C-alpha cells in the first residue's frame, strides 16, 4: 500500500529518534546547549534541526532549553593540527550545511602562542577574507619559547582544550560536542566549558558584579572581557572547588564589532553567538586578577593619563536653560566653598540643538561664563553629538555643507547620504573611519573653540543613536544585513531599531560590521583633534565604548535613575570598566532620570566622591515638570557641609588617585578595583560589590540604603585603619563587621601596609596642587612595615611619562624609619613640592623623640588609637626624606 508508506516512514523515524534520544540526549540538564535560541521552538522544528526536545523541565524566562544538541550532533571535523612558527594551525571541515543559511564549510583555526601567559586563537573562513576588527593588536609571528599553557585536541570532532601546565587544570575547552559549534555567514556560535562559576565582566550591565551562572544571557554592544576566577589546585568538581591554594584567573577577550551574545549556564559553560566577522579570542593566564587585566591591556592598549583637573569634581545638568543660570550655579558652589573643577552644559546650550552653535538668546554670553571659569582656574566641557543637522538651507550651516563637500557622511545602501533624526531634526552621521573626516571634524571643533573655549568634550549619542529606525526612509527590506536570519531579543526588536541601517556604507566596511565601533572611531578622531587644538592633554567622556576606548577617553555609565539600587549598581559599572581598561569612569551622582531627594543625593555624593570620574548630572524634565535642582548648592547647609566634606576628602586624596591613573597608564593596573583583586585567595570577597578599593590601599564602604545609620561591611582578615583617625580594626578571619555610618560619614579604611600620598585640599585642583603634601602610612601590624609611591608631573602636558618629565617617589617604612626616595626626577617644578606632614597609623608606643632628616621634629601622639603625627614640616620632596622615631 503506497499511501501508507510515508506514514510508516514517519513512525519509523520517530521510533529511531526516540531510541537514540535516550542515549544521546541524556546529559545533565546543565549541559544542554540551546539549539533553538529563536522564539517559537517546538518539537517539530527542533527535531528538524537534528536536536533533542524535552519540555518537561521548568523553563522560566531564561533557563534550561527545551531544544538542545545531542552529544553526537554533526560538527566540524578537525584535521591537523600542524606546528607553525607562531604555534599551530588546523583545518575544520563540515560535510553538510547547518540549519542557518550560508554555512562556511571550510574553516581554519590558528592558535598563536604569543607569550608565556597569552594565547590567541582565530577561527575564520579558509577560502574567503571576512571582516576583522580594525584595532591595533600585537602581531606575533614567532611562538613564545616557554608557555604556562598547553593545547590539547580531541581525537574526534571539533574543538580544543587549553590547560594550565603547572596544575594540569583545563581553563578553556571547546570540545563540548553537544555545544553546537556553527560557522555560518551570519551566525557563528562557540561554546566552552568553564572551570569555575565565579564569572565577571561581560560588558556594561546594571546588576551585581558576580555574574550568575544560572542561565544568564548577555547582549553586548561592547564585546568585552570575561574574567573567570578559578582555583589553582585540585580537580574542579562543580561546587566543591578547593580554594585553599592560590587562585588563578584565565580570561577571554572576544574582539568582534558585530553584535555579540553570551549565555552562561551552570555546567559551568558559556556560549558566544555573533552574526558576522570571525572568531578572535585571547586567553590570559594571569595568574592573579590584576595580572590578567595587565595582560589584556598589553593587547588593547593602556589607558590615557587624564589631565589632573579632570580628576576634580564636575557639575552638569540638562536644563540650566541659560548661560546666566549656569553661572549662578557655579557662583553658589564657590559661595559654599564646595570643590569644583569643571562646569558642563548639555545640549540646551546649542541653537536648535545644532552642533557648534550657541543659543543666540539664552547662551549668547556662554563665552563669558567660560572666561570666568578660566579666571578661577576652572574648566569647561561642551557636549558634542555626532549627528549633524542636514536640513538647513544651503550655505547657512557650514558643518553640514563642509561635510558634504568633504564627503564625510555615512551613505545608505544606494550610496546617498543616510538621513536619520536626532535632536536637531534631520541629521547625517559622520563616518569617522574615513581619513577625510578628521580634517573636517578638526575645522568644526576649531571654529567652535574660537567662540567657546572648551577644555574637553562630552561625546553623547554615539551608539549611534537615532530617533527613527534605520533612516528617514527606513532600511531596504531585502538586505540580509538589515534583517539577518538570526536575531536574539533586542531592545528595539531589530538591528536598525533606533540606530542606522546596518546596510549603510562606511569607508572600510558596512555599518553592520562597524556599528559597535562608531563611538570609538569618534573618540579616536576627537582625541587627536583636541590634543592639537589645545596643545594639552585631551579630556573626553564618551557614551559608547569598545576595547581600546580607554586609550583615548573615559566613560560615564549613561542615563541612570535617582534610585537607591542605581546607586548600588553604579559600583559594578565602575569596577567593570576598570577591568575593561577604561578606568576614568563614573555614574551620574544623585541620578539622572527622576527627581532625587536630599538623603539619596547626599549619600550619592559620598560615594561619587570616589568615582574615578566624579560628576553630578541631572535631567531636564521629571514627568511633566522640570526636575528639581540637585547640584550641591541646592541643598540645606547641613547637607552642603557633608557634600563639601566628601569632596574635600577626594581632593585630599588626589595625589594617590593620580598615581593610580599613572600606574594604569604605565602598566595597565586598575584604579578602582573589587576586593577580590587584592584578596584572590579569599572566597568571602568574591561577591562583594557594595564596597571597593582605590588601588590596593584604600577601602571605600558607602551607605547604599535609605535611613541607614550603620553599615555591614566585609573586612578581609588583617588590620584596617580608619582613614580619618587611625583607629584600627584587627580581625583574624574575614568577617562582616557593622560600622557606624551616620549621615555625615562615608567609611574609608586604609589597608595595613599602605602609604598614601595626600595634599592639602582646596576648592580647585589648581590651588590644591600648591598645597603641602602629607604622607599617611598604615603600618602592618605583623611586620611593622609599609610602602607606597607618588607619580607627579605638571598634570596637563601631553606625554609627560613618555618624555620622562615627571617625578616618581617611593615610600617605605620599616624599623621605625620612614623613607621617601626619589626614583626618577625630570619634573621641572619638583623643587616646589613640599612635605608638610607625616601621619603614621599603628604606632604602638608614644615615641621618645622624632627626627626628620636627622633634626628633631614637632610631633603629637594619640595613644588611644596609636597615631603619630609629625607636622609643621617644610621639607623639599625632590630629595630623600628620612623620618625616624624612637620607641
Ligand atoms: C588544510 O587545508 C589546506 C588546503 O586544502 C591544505 O593545503 C593543508 O595542508 C591543510 N592543513 C592541515 C593541517 O590539514
Ligand atoms: C574537554 O572536554 C571533553 C568533553 O567533556 C573531554 O573529553 C576532554 O578531555 C576535555 N579536554 C581538556 C583538555 O580538558
Automatic annotation (TrEMBL):
Transmembrane region(s): 215-235
Location in or out of the cell: Membrane
Keyword entries, A-Z: Disulfide bond, Glycoprotein, Glycosidase, Hydrolase, Membrane, Signal, Transmembrane, Transmembrane helix
Pfam families: Glyco_hydro_31_2nd, Glyco_hydro_31_3rd, Trefoil
GO CC field: membrane
Residue ranges occupied by any P-type domain in the UniProt entry: 23-71
Gene Ontology MF annotations: alpha-1,4-glucosidase activity; carbohydrate binding
InterPro entries: Gal_mutarotase_sf_dom, GH, Glyco_hydro_31_AS, Glyco_hydro_31_C, Glyco_hydro_31_CS, Glyco_hydro_31_TIM, Glyco_hydro_b, P_trefoil_dom
GO biological process: carbohydrate metabolic process
UniProt keyword annotation of Iron present: no
N-terminal signal peptide: 1-22
SMART domains, per database record: PD
Keyword Membrane tagged: yes
Matching PANTHER family: ALPHA-GLUCOSIDASE (PTHR22762), GLYCOSIDE HYDROLASE FAMILY 31 N-TERMINAL DOMAIN-CONTAINING PROTEIN (PTHR22762:SF131)
Family, as annotated: Belongs to the glycosyl hydrolase 31 family.
Protein name in UniProt: Putative lysosomal alpha-glucosidase-like
